[in-house]
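Lab meeting notes turned into a lecture example. A postdoc, R.K., suggested we walk through two folding results consecutively so the class can see how the record format repeats. The first protein's sequence and structure tokens come next.
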Amino acid sequence: MRRAGLGEGGSGNYVASGYSVYEEENDHLQEGLRAKVSALKSLTIDIGTEVKYQNKMLEDMDSDFDSTGGLLGATIGRVKQLSRGSQTKLLCYMLLFCLFVFFVLYWFIKLR
């Protein structure tokens, strides 16, 4: 099967060389596109790795906050028990201790 312009003759060689120029240009563009695709692929992989790392950090922070919330809840429950009970002596000691710490910190800051 013969294509138009690709027969045996002078004009066929001119057209064939034109096609080879286009083929070389396509190969060059294909290599450029391949390089860009590989760069995008590596960037996407890096983004996925970073997202996994950030999600792990967020999960760790969530568990830390949950444990801290539980600790604070238990502490507040104990303080409520102290305030409801008739343990005024213990409450007085706790108040005096807080005042002592406050004055020590105040004195320490004043000396600086």
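The second example is placed directly after the first for contrast:
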Amino acid sequence: MTSLWRVLYQINPTFFPHGPDYIPPTSQLLDQPKYQIVYHELGLLQAGLSVTDSKSPAMEIERARSMSPAKLSYDKSTPDAFLKMVRNEPLTRKGCGRDVRHFEFEFFPSTISYDVGDVLEVLPSQNPDLVDAFIQRCNLDPEAFITVCPKQRGSHLVDGSKSGQALPINLKKYVELAMDVTSASPRRYFFEVMSYFATAEHEKERLEYFVSPEGRDDLYQYNQKERRTVLEVLEDFPSVQMPFEWLVELVPPLRKRAFSIASSPSAHPNQVHLTVSVVSWTTPFKRKRMGLCSSWLASLDPLQGVTIPSWFHKGSLPAPPPSLPLILIGPGTGCAPFRGFLAERAAHDTSSSAAPIMFFFGCRNEGDDFLYRDLWLSHSHDGGLLSEARGGGFYVAFSRDQPQKVYVQHKMREQSQKIWAALSEGGAAIYVAGSSTNMPSDVMLAVEEIISKEGGVAREAAAVLIRRLERDGKYHVEAWS
């Protein structure tokens, strides 16, 4: 770029009145924040705005999240329902290295209708002590009432007295509900803006190095690899005092977490169930990290009566009609939606007329993480929906219980004739759910091999048939990272 400026200066010196090597003051290099914080006097609020009447949890969430710079036009701010946990049950053996929980919630105060295969989104709560530490570190007034509004074009500020389109919200509540200060890592531009507000020279130099091309790898090691939170980064650079406008714009938003629903509205009225793996890992510098939402849910005691804001929406697994034969592949927590499928079909299987289900489940060890073992086995005997007598089947791959790893795709190949018969004669649909790493592609490859082998067609023709199944709504995948 320096060479370009000098060539342009030779062509026309008026391009650079101060010369091509002139560097403007740093204050001129930093853009202005795109959002303005309007502070409201409490006395005027109580006189003119009904703040006390709008302190319900639903309204506070709606106000905070609708003001957030990260708000998307299609994103619904107001929760569909509030849930209360009534059951928190470990599904894995204690000490096995994995923690998977079964959660049951009741609707509070009113029930929301949903279908099997739907997705539940949960807004997690942040550690209140860490939220208080962030507010104190940034010299913010937790009792202030604010509105967050975009600046108008031409850098004109919004008149605070006329910004009543959105009701003001308590500053601490806004941080709790809209800004992820306790789990998410900031992006590179956060460090660049910090460098302009650092008053200690060594901190300024380190921040400028982080955002330089030479410091890119070190920033990655410091920030992303260690998953440092916004609060931790700010505490590492104590001389930095960023204006709240910049924090509102640059702190990652507090995002909802999505889970496949593991229950059936017919079998579990007024309830919704989840199967959740509690996320934890160790960073390269041996720092213990926990997933915000999963660890928060796991810490809840059903007797506490904590209300959980939630949203419901359609996922990638449409609810199948009872007459449709199913081939389900769900290793690990991928079994969650299929627990709902099975419960829903069993609830309406009064005369044993429902179509059969073949279910391929996978886990590491039979004694450690065989999730919902008794449920699957109970339906695989005595004419149950998973019984071979009904044309179904339950097949488990324990990947670590023998020297050579065995996965669900291996069990599928063992049942290739039965799968082909279900597809070609029974018109079955395939549903796949679980980790998005290699499993979905490995399963599709296994289906392709089965169609080619049992149908006597080339692999290319088998791939075409799979695409036809997808177009006809008979091959569905729901995968997550």
